[in-house]
Amino acid sequence: MTHNVNATYDQKFAPLAWRGRGSLVYYGGLTNRTRLVKAFSYALPAVCVVFLAAANFLEAQISLKETAILGVLTCNFPLMAHALTKSYVTRMYYDADKDTFTASTYGLLTREVLHVFTPEDVEVTPTKAMTSCKVRGIPLIVHKKNFFDLEMYQKMMGYDKPHGYNISPEQEEEYLEKIRREKQEKTKK
Questions:
Q1: Which of 13-17, 62-66, 77-81, 120-124 shows the lowest per-residue confidence on average (mean pLDDT)?
Q2: In whole angstroms, what is the distance from residue 27 CA to residue 36 CA?
Q3: Do residue 43 and residue 124 come from a single domain?
Q4: What gap in Å lies between CA 3 and CA 152, rounded to an integer?
Q5: Mind listing the pLDDT tens digit for each residue in 84-127?
Q6: How far apart, in whole angstroms, are the C-alpha atoms of residue 173 and residue 162?
């Protein structure tokens, strides 16, 4: 079962390092904003340091309160931005041959961090606004609407398999075959 969702989109947006990792199945809608927030969070401390250096050079009288505010911005804003955005998945690929997903998140210095996993590694943790999951204990935030193919979302989350029932492998295969037949009948109509 090969899924090449959108080859032109895949070629246009996939960085060269990603090619050969499968088909692009997810592109986060907040990817550019996440990158901009992180870049701003690193630019702000630089501006604060330059301001403090200029004030010191000009021998300006800066109050302790102003210095404390600049110090908090310098140290805490980048860490806070990183904490809020480190779990957001920017891109996800699916390799049908290996049955693996590769998710990309932004690291501390807006460097892409790759998470390679199988559907069995995913632990679903339901939330209201976004679909969150843990992959080998690492929380990832993905949004269902950003998947190009809903079947990939269902496969990743394990929704394509029956849950909580004590059924034999033969019964499970019969159930999956029934779903396949129903799907084929719908596509024929």
A1: 13-17
A2: 16
A3: no
A4: 8
A5: 888 899 999 999 888 899 999 998 877 889 999 999 999 887 66
A6: 10
Under DSSP, is residue 124 helix (H, G, I), strand (E, B) or coil?
strand
Tally Cβ neighbours within 10 Å of residue 95: 15
Count of domains forming the chain: 2
* 88: DSSP letter: B
User: Is residue 188 included in any domain, yes or no?
Assistant: no
Asked whether residue 123 falls in the same domain as residue 62, the answer is: no
Are residues 103 and 145 part of one domain? yes
Alpha carbon distances (Å) from 54 to 58, 62, 75, 124 = 6, 11, 19, 51
Q: Do 95 and 140 sit in the same domain of this protein? A: yes
Whether residue 51 is found in the same domain as residue 97? no
Q: Tell me the pLDDT tens digit for each residue of 138-187.
A: 889 998 899 998 889 988 888 877 665 566 778 778 888 888 888 888 78
Measured at the CA of 166, the angle between CA 160 and CA 168, to 5 degrees, comes to 80
Burial 20-58 (b: 16+ CB within 10 A, else e): ebbbbbbbbebbeebeebbeebeebbeebeeebeeeeee
pLDDT in tens, 13-45: 544 445 667 889 999 988 889 888 888 888 888
Which structural domain range is residue 40 located in?
A: 35-85
Q: What is the pTM of this model?
A: 0.67
98 and 139 inside one domain: yes
